[in-house]
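Problem: given the chain below (114 residues), write out its structure.
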Amino acid sequence: MAMGDKEVFVVDQGNHRIDVFGIDGTYRRQWGTCGHGEGQFDSPCDVVVREEEVLVSDCGNHRIQSFGLDGTYRRQWGIRGNGEGQFKNPSGLAVAGGLLFVCDEVNHRMQIFA
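Solution.
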């Protein structure tokens, strides 16, 4: 779960999507389906909001996906592997000081991106 200025973004891992609620709990919207294409997820694990960007750890697809606040797909990075920028089940996300921290679970490491 991540909180924007006026909205709460929640990972719905079992339904392979992101749900968005108002801070009062009112349902607003959702995006994502099960799959491997752009904007699709395979067991998303975490979501974080930074400025006007929503970042999602797409655990089963071994990548990070970026969206606009409205759910518009922007970009993705990462593939399955153990090299720099590669992941094996990226799970937790955190933002601090303009950096994105990704818990690369199966590789037993944290990767940091500017």
